[in-house]
Amino acid sequence: MPSYKLYYGKGKGLGELSRYLFAIKQQAYEDIRFGDDLKWEDHKASAPYGKMPFLEVDGQRFGQSACIARFLANQFGLAGKTDLEKLKADGIIDCIHKDILSKFMSLYMEKDEERKANIKKDLITNTAEMYKKLEEQAEGDNTFLKSGLSWADVCFFNFHCDFYGDRFDKIDLAQTPKLKKIIDNVAANQHIKNWIAKRPESEF
Amino acid sequence: MPEYKLYYGKGKGYGELSRMLFALGELEFTDVRMEDGDEKTKLINNSPYGANPNFEIDGVMYGKNVAIARYVAKKVDLYGKTDIDQLKTDAIVDYVYQDIAGKLLSIYFEKDEEKKAKLIEEGKDFVKNTAVGKLEKQIEGENTFLASGLSWADVAVFNFFHDLYTPFFKEDAFEGSPILKKHSEHVASLPLLKKHLETRAVTEF
Nearest CA to CA, how far is B81 from chain A (Å)? Predict the structure, then answer.
């Protein structure tokens, strides 16, 4: 049995998708959070890509949040059953992480108020478009993949509830009934519920 | 044998990694290169994520360039043999096409000339003083990232720097890195890739 250590900051952010996957599988791991006791500055140079999260598996370190999550999804049988399902799931993750979450980062980093307002406007529009596209990708009854629950569902749940949340204009899920079922399905998972109830509180 | 069709524009861009992998695996596919116009716009608008490249497998459309390339890598046996090796290649490819390429894209789309000039300097500095070092550390084989041999990570790094970075910045990112220079030369010398480089359409990007 490999030993897992996930290194991230105090909040949910880009670490939470992996934490959800560990929770669903009830796989033990060390949930290491940088902060006052453990300074990120002291560890940044040794992180594979100079960023967090990174995952340590039996002492070896690996970076890139979506890649770590894909690895865990494959370990836990949550990546999809065939190469075609995995291709579909990969597309969904990339759409959420690369197209939209990257804009969150831009918004967060932008200092100029006018540019910030434009990024925010784009983010809201692009998110609405993304939801329409993702609705078309859903093939299962309450999952993206026909074969059942996968990390694509968890990734979307993470985006909708933790990233987008209440920060912007409310998204009307009545327009995307399949996406609503996907979110409800993940939310109803007992292990996800337990994790949400016990995880540290954080704004992001 | 499934029927594969790759849809992109005329250039190399984000379609080229998959094309190189098909070439290395001698796997047949239809290389659809579309002119700008109504047909291309219609395809893009109807596609899974509203952007090219798109990948049709037995009539079903799939999107996202790295996801597509990963699938092709699996089919031509260039994804890595173990879960850990596959994770390593995933991270290298995402670092290149997301972290590094992202900086290029933000330059490409910047309208303000002053900010653009600043972004160009920051981009070059990031690549030469940070990214190159990170990539060097990932090399575990003899001119390959994986100890087990060639993988799509090698092709991705070669493709990005040879076809996008160098033409865009008009300089060699690996000038100060003998390791990555050797790596590139090795990848370019692989007979099937060499043939692809010699016979592919010539485009700016």
Answer: 13
pLDDT tens for residues B13-52? Answer: 999 999 999 999 999 999 999 999 999 999 999 999 999 9
Tally of residues, chain A: 204
The answer, as to whether pTM is greater than 0.95, is: yes
Confirm or reject contact between B38 and chain A (CB < 8 A): no
Taking only Cα atoms into account, the Rg of chain A, rounded to an integer number of angstroms, comes to 17
What kind and span of H or E run contains A33?
strand A30-33
Contact B153, B139 (CB under 8 A): no
Task: Calculate how close chain A gets to B202, using CA atoms only, in Å.
Answer: 29
Q: Pick from B49, B83, B86: which is nearest to A133 by CB?
A: B49
Residue B71's CB is within 10 A of a number of other CB atoms, namely 23
Residue B157 corresponds to which tokens in the numbers above? Answer: 């790094």
How does DSSP classify residue A5?
E
Q: Which residues pair with B60 in a beta bridge?
A: B57
ipTM: 0.96
Q: Is the dihedral of CA B142, B146, B148, B150 positive or negative?
A: negative
Residue A52, both tokens? 């967090």
Tell me the C-alpha distance between B23 and A93, whole Å. Answer: 27
Provide the β-strand partners of residue B30.
B5
- A46, closest residue in chain B (CA to CA): B134
Q: Which residues of A touch B60 (CB under 8 A)?
A: 84
Distance CA B145, CA B137 (A): 9
Least confident segment among A67-71, A78-82, B4-8, B168-172: B168-172
Interchain pair A71, B83: CB under 8 A:
yes
Residue of A nearest to B138 (CA): A48
Return d(Cα A146, Cα A135) in angstroms, integer: 14
Nearest chain B residue to A90, by CA: B67
Dist. CA A53–CA A21, nearest whole Å: 14
How big is the A-B interface in CB pairs under 8 Å? Answer: 81
Hey, is the C-beta of A168 within 8 angstroms of any chain B C-beta?
A: no
